[in-house]
């Protein structure tokens, strides 16, 4: 089982990034996918989730700026992040979880928003 995030980097405030999470080793369609972030010195923060049938959910802090999507043909989940703010800086982690409680995490990708 593997989740591999990519797409992080450094961007100026107001910029955009698209994170990707590539899944392998499990039945992707059986898992809902979540993005969680953690800033230095802070606890994990739930960002967004997408259901099996691609219904998205967002934290208030990112609603209207972030868009989550999944490509079941490629076993990928994306997080399009627009109008980025310095407070969005964090390590972003991808999580897969099914109804039986099996849960997998990626290694994370760093996002830094700074001028």
Secondary structure elements and pairings:
Layout: E1 2-6, E2 9-11, E3 17-24, E4 32-38, E5 45-50, E6 56-58, E7 66-71, E8 76-81, E9 90-97, E10 103-105, E11 109-113
Parallel strand pairs: 2-11
Antiparallel strand pairs: 1-3, 3-8, 4-5, 4-9, 5-6, 7-8, 9-10, 9-11
Radius of gyration, in Å, reads 13 Å
Task: List low-pLDDT spans.
Answer: none
Shape estimate: globular
| Largest sheet descriptor | 7 strands, mixed
Give the ordered list of helices and strands: EEEEEEEEEEE
Walk me through what this model shows:
It is globular and about 40 Å long. The chain starts with a strand and ends with a strand. About 0% of the residues lie in helices and about 50% in strands. It has strands at about 1-5, 10, 15-25, 30-40, 45-50, 55-60, 65-70, 75-80, 90-95, 105, 110-115. Strands 2, 4, 5, 6, 9, 10 and 11 form a 7-stranded mixed beta sheet that branches. A 4-stranded antiparallel beta sheet has the order 1-3-8-7, with no helix packed on it. Strand 9 (about 90-95) and strand 10 form a beta hairpin. It is an all-beta fold and about 120 residues long. It is built from no helices and 11 strands.
Q: What is the structure about, briefly put?
A:
This protein is an all-beta fold and 115 residues long.
Key descriptive features of the protein:
single chain, 115 residues, mainly beta, four-stranded antiparallel sheet, 11 strands
